[in-house]
Amino acid sequence: MKLYGIPNCSTVKKARNWLDAHELDYEFHDFKKQGVPESLMKALMKAHGWEPLVNRKGPTWRNLPDERKAQVKDAASALTVMQENSSVIKRPILERDNQYLFGFKESEYEEFFS
Q1: Average pLDDT, the chain
Q2: Which of 2, 9, 18, 57 could lock 95 by a disulfide, CB 3.0 to 4.6 Å apart?
């Protein structure tokens, strides 16, 4: 099982705390230190579309110039902006047995692990 995110993100911290409290082993992939895995992002976009992966509510997205935001209109342009600004990726991304969760909601994690 692998958790992708940024360690100082409050939502990632909640997910990590939940996993730790339930004594679930996972590998953490830090987007800032280890980069954005292109193959993962392409696979996720193919399976789920690119829209759920772009966090349009966060400060990184809001601080992008309007012309840059307007350029994000398909999977290729979304991938480019996610690689340039990993903080724009909806996080955390939890991967287990080729199934994925985006973000953290305790009820979704409980159902995912039941």
Answers
A1: 94
A2: 2
